[in-house]
Amino acid sequence: MSRLQQFILPDLAEGLTEAEILQWMVAVGDKVELNQPFVEVETAKSAVEIPSPYAGVVTEILRDAGETVDVGSPIITIDTDPNGEAPAAPESAAAPAAETAASNGAKIGETTADGRTAVLVGYGAKAPTTVRRARKGAAPAAPVAPAPAPVAAPAPVAPAPVVATPVAVGTVLAKPPVRKLAKDLGVDLRALVGSGPQGSITRDDVQSAASAPAEPVVVASPVVAPSAGDTRIPVKGVRKLTAENMVASAFSAPHVTEFLTVDATRLLKTVAKMRESDEFKGVRVGPLALLAKGVLLAVKRHPMVNSSWDAANGEIVVKEHVNLGIAAATPRGLIVPNIKAADTLSTKELAEALVELTSTARDGKTPPADMTGGSFTITNVGVFGVDTGTPILPPGEAAILAFGAIRDMPWVHKGKVVPRKVTTLGLSFDHRIIDGELGSKFLADLGRFVNDPKGTLLAWS
Amino acid sequence: MVNGERARGTTKSGGTTRTAAKKPTPRKKATTDRSVANVADPAFVQLLTPDGERVEHPDYSVDFTDQEYRDLYRDLVIVRRLDTEGTTLQRQGQLGIWASLAGQEAAQIGSGRALAEQDMVFPTYREHGVLWTRDIDPIMPFGLFRGVDLGGWDAQKYRFQGYTIVIGAQTLHATGYAMGITKDGKVGTDDGEAVIAYFGDGAISQGDVNEAFIYAAAYDAPVVFFCQNNQYAISVPVHKQAKTPLFKRADGFGFPGVRVDGNDVLATYAVTKVAMDRARHGQGPGLIEAFTYRMGAHTTTDDPTRYRDKSEEEEWRLKDPVARMRGFLEKQQLADDDYFASIDAEAAEHALSLRERVLTLPEPKPSAIFDHVYPNGSPLLDAERAEFLAYQESFEGSGH
Prior knowledge:
A: CATH 2.40.50.100, 8 helices, B: alpha/beta, 2 domains, two-stranded antiparallel ribbon
């Protein structure tokens, strides 16, 4: 008899809830051996190949590559007795009801008499929903409507203005990191209605409360009817992280952005000369490397730019070293690796570090340590041909610089309008730390550097 | 016989001395060779080169029969194959987690086979190979990692303690046990007892391990500390937490330390034998650093590609402990292709039968948690058990 077995995605590490299918290594009709890898999946922890617990023939592939699958969902059906006759109903290796299929002579991976293999052991591989067992002799388990909470009606002494916030009676349920987030964002937990288990307040609740306008403004948002041609992209991985970081930063640090358009002709000439010099032989030095050097020199003159707002301790942390972040577009999305203690490096070392950092990022090999602890970031939007933008601060940093495209523009130079290489610098900063004066001075210094790197270097050293 | 002492005298030319100035040039790539032992160094005990050439060492040697050489190879192949099954079963959702020994087979088989029957082993959670050398059913860790074994274990019967998950804790247990052996007067003869405590390069930074060293030295406890330096404490490379070669730490505590090629089953056997014999004759503790490499992930929950280069793994693959022993058997004409094929087949059979048994391991009843706490029970636990059973009974269809 044909015997169909479904393989259920297990929890591949400790406490994971989902995995993305990277690629199928088998197709319908293929023969698979016991322990033959048949699919590659990626979890939050790692990418792994799953070996088949069944020998047989693939009859069905239930989820496509690229899909994110919940732990506990079937992903493939394998016929372990393909030469049999009547097809049987699929048996799933982790189906909670599999006890009924108990057989004493169970083969590998099939359900045993005690139903053991029916329940995969990986945590969370069991049925995803908790089923409460009925108590003996209990009344028929009619869904009990939550009784209206006995609200202690306050005897109104005087007609007080009614505040339309849901006042929580008793304790607010929220995990410590959520409480911390609420404190950082200035959100009163007592005013929220939790959407988590047992009404607990989740991170999302806090974030949406923080980003909600104080006054409920009804905006007649154009409701777009979903069209069949729309593509829906699941938000996950780097995209999800980027979104979270940007929201956390945009709604906690008050951003100010200033722009400065400058003549970068001499900056480019200096770069060209450096490339020809013996000292820089074999080093790929570009305008970004030199600008980075300028940033480091300007930070030395204005150390407060290289700082962080520590809300928990009510302090501003001025960093000893500049961990210089470089926003990099990679195939996986935006990542911002940083060069640790960039201010201690020579210009040549800095240029080398930049090359290594960007190539590592493009290869997708940036170690996590390189992506944390940044203190000042440069985003080189110029490589995409745009003039500038208003960058959003990476969380925990006080300033970020957008480096625009360098293009030929008419420019007044020595009293005449001549074509010059011109670029625009855009500096966003955290107004809690940096006032307009400091931000402007820092940006003006950078402008001076771009306009005349050698002269500025001499003047500042 | 006590040539471990002499080996110790030659350690000053240790191959891992770093002279690079500590300057903040953080983008410089860490070179891997600073942690790689110099093979020509006499303080690095090796009896079999990565190509399977037999080499001599002034202080350590082995004298095996042809069959014994073949048996060591068989051990290596089988424990590797069983370990692969552990990883496979975890990927199929049949184990919660698995800690692979891949790459460390020689360190475990060599040291395990060097133990005498009366010796006591204190393992970590990765010593599946040592377990095999004690002739214990290899299913033991599978029950633990499947969550159907509550950890009850008769250490006296197997001369092997239960797996210890807490990093380094077992070194203190081992030292205390060894001090007990001395008090029982069971040291000083060829039949004396000794203890071996396994741990890793990460554990050597633990307070527990350092305390164990101090007590073992102060009491001349018959314990051998066997450190499998597999180069990584999960993701932290050993050079980040140790500025000197690990075996040199023993000097400071006052007992001999030796570094052995952990991928050489003959050398690990030889140094373990010497150290254990010293201990059983009442000459105190010893430290062995088996210099090896974890070829796989720390556990199935870990992804090593995030913190180390593929090229480093490839470099170590050339020093593979199993291939090395096979090369030796071939060069010495101690085995032919038929023999190797038969061993592979035997290993596959072991793996398949283990797999079947793992899948049918019975699940313990919830009340079993009360059963093995005290040998003679306790009124408090009895009351708790009764209460728990009554609670279970209160559910419809409870067949707990």
